[in-house]
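Technical note accompanying the year-one report. For the benefit of new consortium partners, we illustrate the data format agreed upon in the data management plan: each record pairs a sequence with a structure-token string. No post-processing was applied to the example shown here.
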Amino acid sequence: MVTPVIAIVGRPNVGKSALFNRLVGRRQALVRDVPGVTRDRLYGVVSFGRWQATIVDTGGFDPVSDHSLTSAVRRQVLTAIEEAHLILFVVDARAGMTPLDQEIARTLRRCQRPVVVVANKIDSAGQDALLGEFFALGFPEVLPVSAEHGRGVATLLDAIRDRAGHAEAEQEPEGLRVAIIGRPNVGKSSLINGLLGSDRLLVHEAPGTTRDPVDTPLLFRDRRYLLIDTAGIRRKGRVIEALEKLSVVMALKRLERCQVAVVILDATEGVTAQDAHIAGYAHEAGRATVLAVNKWDLVPPGKPSRAEMVNRIRDRLRFLDYAPVGFTSAVTGSGLAELFDLVDQVAEEATKRLPPTLLTKALAHAMERRPTTRAGLPLTLHSATQVAVAPPTFVLRVSGAEKVHFSYERYLVNALRQAFGFTGSPVRLAFRRTRVKKARR
């Protein structure tokens, strides 16, 4: 059963992303009172009763500009129009009709898709008179809404359902959620485009092109994934603009929602302090992690070798010594299949569960090999239990002390890894003191 696709189109800063957020029922797209915030195509699901449709937010449409970035955004918008069964043409009722609105209308009339004109920023019935001039655009329906306050949205949903069809789509499984994170301009969007074999995401030489986290379904080797492309994350001291701060906040929220984080490193620049900062977010969030050295095709053969690059990564990112390393080229496509072998591996390892008997036996053996004391008392293990996965988390009941020196805790984690793997996942231990009850006289 085909799911209706609805594209939101309009010039910059008319409220397209605000309407998109209102229809999907959550703040998925960035909204700021400046033009050009949205650049990629953002997909969401709009529900009205039992009816559902896919809705697509697009960047500000300018059919005539020759600027390279504007042209790239225009290609994204035209792709969304080609996919759509219905187009919502959003205009700014307060600003009135502009020459750019008329130019967009001419483009939409040529595309042979049904169009509903959405006159946004009409907050009260007294402003409905502003609709009149927009009928001159040549489309039969002009509906007043206020995306900010929700006025007119129910009427708009009725119109969308009537024009797009009444098919009740079956929900497909979402797949493994994989967040692609890294600093600006390391090739995150290019890598996703390479996997898809199409220009799904906008790629430009200017750093910071991606602003919204973009969810992209992927069927790869008969397995479903949801790839989450995020804005380039910079260190807090370098993030000045409010828009960039919002982009980083949303990227970090998506990191918390994913199951696997792929940290992209630039092979031509090596591991930077910024890379370590970003990788630390994945570690602290407890996400299964893969390190991807991108742009490997630009490195001269043997300078450095893969082994040397891995050693440099281990030296700079010691806290991620558990994360496997892959080498990719988003441009040539090399290494992408191997990268997803690692993604599948760490996803499986992150959800591994151990029986208490086997776990206790392995940890007791490790503590016998290297006993320790705390506050003059020997540390003795009574039992161990796994209480969570993703990340694997264990509670150890011990006598002697609740607090264990971090170096000994690291020793026990390494013992667990040596015995059971957990490749790609941080392992967390919690110690609980077992109190010995005194016998009654």
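Partners are asked to follow this layout when depositing records. Residues 30-39, 200-212, 237-244 have pLDDT under 50 and may be disordered.
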